[in-house]
């Protein structure tokens, strides 16, 4: 049976040492990147594969296709990476057993405000993340395994 060990929101998807450090930290044997654009871009998949450690499997799916991937593969310990909160919500609503969400890097773009040095959000992001917290999913901010882990509920309480 498959298990999602950690779901990470990262604007960069798999970049640099992300997959290496997080697969070691979680014990994942497979990195799945669920992203509609990357899923159909062979060049980008090949580049991202360079960031996946030797001996770790990689898979790419569309956001909507993740459920099919999850249900039709066997015995994978998955590090799931999505690019934004909208994609995260779609996958959470598939009810596949996500219990931990790491907000890794969410870039500052037009209309977003910095929450931390690494996380920028807008009202839609906050609404989605509050929705996910309300589903009893542990949402936290931790850019790297050795950095401090901050419970996202802290930011919901500030906003309230």
Count of helix runs: 7
Mean pLDDT level: 93
Strand arrangement in the largest pleated sheet: 3-2-4-1-5-8-9
Dominant shape? globular
- The arrangement of helices and strands along the chain is EHEHHEHEHEEEHEEH
Distance between the termini: 39 Å
Would you identify the regions where 5 or more consecutive residues have pLDDT less than 50?
none
Strand content: 25-35%
The major pleated sheet works out as: 7 strands, mixed
Helix content: 25-40%
**What is the β-strand count?**
9
Radius of gyration: 15 Å
Structural class: alpha/beta
Write the layout of secondary structure elements.
Layout: E1 3-10, H1 18-26, E2 30-34, H2 36-39, H3 42-49, E3 57-61, H4 66-72, E4 77-82, H5 85-92, E5 100-105, E6 113-114, E7 120-121, H6 123-134, E8 138-141, E9 150-151, H7 153-159
Parallel strand pairs: 1-4, 1-5, 2-3, 2-4, 5-8
Antiparallel strand pairs: 6-7, 8-9
Helix pairs in contact: 5-6
Task: Quickly describe the structure.
Helix content is 34%, strand content 25%. It is built from 7 helices and 9 strands. The protein has helices at 18-26, 36-39, 42-49, 66-72, 85-92, 123-134, 153-159; strands at 3-10, 30-34, 57-61, 77-82, 100-105, 113-114, 120-121, 138-141, 150-151.
Textual characterization of the structure:
The mean pLDDT is 93. Strands 3-2-4-1-5-8-9 form a seven-stranded mixed β-sheet, with helices on both faces. The chain is an alpha/beta fold and 160 residues long. Helix content is 34%, strand content 25%. The protein has helices at 18-26, 36-39, 42-49, 66-72, 85-92, 123-134, 153-159; strands at 3-10, 30-34, 57-61, 77-82, 100-105, 113-114, 120-121, 138-141, 150-151.
């Amino acid at each position: 049976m498959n298990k999602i060990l950690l779901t990470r929101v990262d604007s960069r998807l798999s970049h640099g040492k992300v997959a290496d450090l997080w697969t070691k930290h979680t014990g994942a044997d497979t990195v799945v990147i669920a992203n509609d654009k990357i899923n159909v871009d062979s060049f980008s998949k090949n580049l991202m594969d360079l960031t996946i450690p030797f001996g770790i499997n990689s898979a790419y799916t569309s956001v909507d296709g993740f459920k099919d991937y999850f249900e039709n593969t066997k015995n994978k310990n998955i590090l799931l990476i999505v690019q934004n909160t909208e994609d995260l919500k779609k996958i959470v609503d598939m009810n596949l057993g996500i219990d931990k969400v790491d907000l890794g890097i969410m870039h500052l773009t037009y209309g977003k405000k910095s929450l931390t040095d690494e996380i920028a959000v807008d009202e839609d992001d906050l609404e989605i993340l509050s929705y996910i917290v309300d589903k009893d999913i542990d949402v936290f901010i931790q850019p790297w395994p050795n950095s401090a882990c901050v419970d996202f509920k802290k930011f919901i309480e500030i906003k309230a």
